[in-house]
Design a protein that fits this description.
Structural class: alpha+beta
CATH architecture of the largest domain: 2-Layer Sandwich
CATH class of the largest domain: Alpha Beta
CATH superfamily of the largest domain: Bira Bifunctional Protein, Domain 2
Number of strands: 16
Radius of gyration: 27 Å
Strand order of the largest sheet: 1-5-6-11-10-9-7-8
Largest sheet: 8 strands, mixed
Helix content: 25-40%
Number of domains: 2
CATH topology of the largest domain: BirA Bifunctional Protein, domain 2
């Protein structure tokens, strides 16, 4: 007997949850495309050399790496930014510049599972490649705000910083990785880790104080002039752990949701050059899809009808000899673009068929008895009110 179970950190999505996910994906796609972003898809597997060393030591440890049957060292997609860099370098003569793309695909990380964090999860990315202009940064931030607004979030903030801030205070990658934990572990714990890294309590306190009082860069100041319009707030401790960021970094926080940021990204002007042998600037972000879903659930932002069945009508089979009549009504409704399900067991009792409609949340049921068939009528039953009426088949459309 094989125990039916999923691997830790991997999930199934039953219809109710899958419909929520599809709802969010559809909204994000519409927003992305309204800003001129084009769809892109990349393989689940990349050569190891493409991904290794692009995310820092921690990223390398979390990759699913193995040798395939051809003896090639391969890695499962860790994020969608490095594969984008590879695509741009590989097809640079075929792509329009600036290249605006969105990508909605799964990524895999051998991470410790926790609230809102899994080993296989969906990422939704938008990126602008080939432009150094601050207009590109603002376009990304504006798209993020529009997407969250369309998902019915009312209260959220976009925290912004620049990696150049850390150059001013001479913060090395180890220090940056400590600062990246500030919102999770708090000031005291960060100071303790900084003291260990700097081997001095005084140095740690002075560093922390200097960073706390530092001014935004000129480029950040230009963005912050749009702070009211875009919900932007300067946060000097915001670090973003990935090594490839070069300037703007940002994260989106929802005050009433405690599961962490729901979106993050920034500018990475040197990454693509590692593959293209020339500098190609870029800026972008990734939405934490699972956290979006979780936050929307907690804040009741999903429309009530999202979890209902997509089937509008169930056509039942009253008796086997009336099967053709039920098929006829099913085809009529489908031709008129009504989502219609046909019960697939002509020997099932009507009670069982009605229970099936109830369990699936199908709002209407069509019943065709011998008497109705002889008069060219059907019974249309409203499963919510339990009321039913005998009508002509063509009048079903008016009723529903």
């Amino acid at each position: 007997m094989i125990k039916p179970q999923t691997l830790k950190g991997f999930r199934d999505f039953l219809p109710e949850e899958a419909r929520k996910r599809q709802y969010v994906i559809n909204i994000l796609k519409k927003v992305f495309e309204s800003y001129g972003f084009e769809p892109l898809e990349t393989p689940a597997l990349e050569y190891e050399e493409i991904l290794i060393g692009k995310y820092g030591d921690e990223g390398d440890k979390l990759m699913y790496r193995f040798v395939d049957k051809g003896g090639r060292k391969v890695v499962m997609r860790y994020d969608q930014t490095v594969p984008l860099a590879r695509v741009v370098a590989q097809y640079q003569n075929e792509l329009p510049m600036p290249f605006k793309r969105y990508q909605i695909q799964n990524v895999w990380r051998a991470d410790n599972t926790q609230k809102g964090r899994f080993r296989e999860f969906l990422q939704c990315d938008i990126d602008i490649v080939g432009s150094e202009s601050i207009l590109s940064d603002l376009d990304i931030l504006s798209c993020v705000k529009t997407a969250l607004s369309k998902l019915n979030f009312k209260d959220f903030t976009i925290l912004v910083n620049s990696r150049k801030i850390f150059e001013q205070v001479e913060a090395n990658p180890k220090i940056i990785s400590i600062l990246d934990k500030e919102d999770k572990i708090g000031k005291d714990e960060v100071l303790l880790l900084l003291s260990e890294a700097m081997e001095s309590d005084d140095k740690a306190k002075n560093f922390y104080s200097a960073l706390k009082n530092i001014s935004p860069t000129d480029r950040l100041n230009q963005m912050l002039k749009k702070s009211e319009e875009l919900n932007l707030f300067f946060s000097p401790f915001l670090a973003r752990g990935l090594d490839y960021y070069t300037d703007l970094i940002f994260e989106v926080k929802i005050p009433k949701y405690k599961g962490g940021s729901v979106c993050g990204g920034g500018r990475y002007d040197n990454l693509i050059g590692m593959f293209a042998n020339k500098k190609i600037p870029a800026v972008g972000c990734a939405f934490g899809f699972d956290r979006l879903i979780e936050a929307m659930d907690e804040l009741n932002l999903f429309p009530q009808n999202i979890v209902a069945s997509s089937t509008k009508v169930l056509v039942t089979i009253f008796k086997p000899e009336l099967l053709n009549k039920s098929i006829e009504i099913t085809l009529l409704l489908r031709r008129n673009r009504v989502s219609t399900e046909f019960y697939l067991d002509e020997s099932a009792k009507m009670e069982k068929q009605l229970k099936y409609a109830d369990k699936k949340g199908i709002p209407y049921v069509v019943i065709i008895g011998q008497d109705e068939a002889s008069k060219n009528l059907v019974i249309l039953r409203n499963m919510r009110t339990r009321k039913q009426v005998a009508i002509k088949p063509e009048d079903i459309l008016k009723k529903i």
